[in-house]
Amino acid sequence: MCHLFAHQPQRDYESHTRSLRIDGHCTSIRLEMSFWDTLEEIAAKEGMTLAKFLTTLHNEVLDHHGEVNNFASLLRCSCLIYRAKANAPAVVPDYRGTAAAILDAAE
To answer: Which of 4, 26, 31, 51 is the right S-S partner for 35, CB 3.0 to 4.6 Å?
Structure first.
């Protein structure tokens, strides 16, 4: 089991600090490279630059919660959610019982 974790590229868990501006305020965020890579991927899928995506996410959290506590942790958790959903098996609709209801309606 540890082989999987121990043999990952060191680049993936190296920390990198990026400076950005969110609504006119300069800030810096320190994350591991694997999280930055995932955030870049999410932003690209949304058709945004990373800076625009981070600003949008920050503003949505601010609107929903009234404040943004620990934005770096929020970003890490967002990446985990994104990866979990990307790797989740496709949901197959459960149509059991539907055929009987359709047949009853046809009578």
So the answer is: 31
The pTM assigned to this predicted structure is 0.78
Instruction: Spell out the residues 6+ positions from residue 72 whose beta carbon is closer than 8 angstroms to its own.
Output: 29, 30, 31
**CA triple 23-43-34, angle to 5 deg:** 105
The DSSP-derived string for 32-85 is EHHHHHHHHHHHHHTT--HHHHHHHHHHHHHHHHSS---HHHHHHHHHHHHHHH
**Distance between CA atoms of residues 77 and 4, nearest Å:** 21
49 is written with which tokens?
Answer: 């630059």
* Per-residue pLDDT at 36: 98
pLDDT of 106 over the 60 cut:
no
Task: Classify residue 30 as exposed, middle or buried by CB count within 10 Å of its CB (0-12, 13-18, 19+).
Answer: exposed
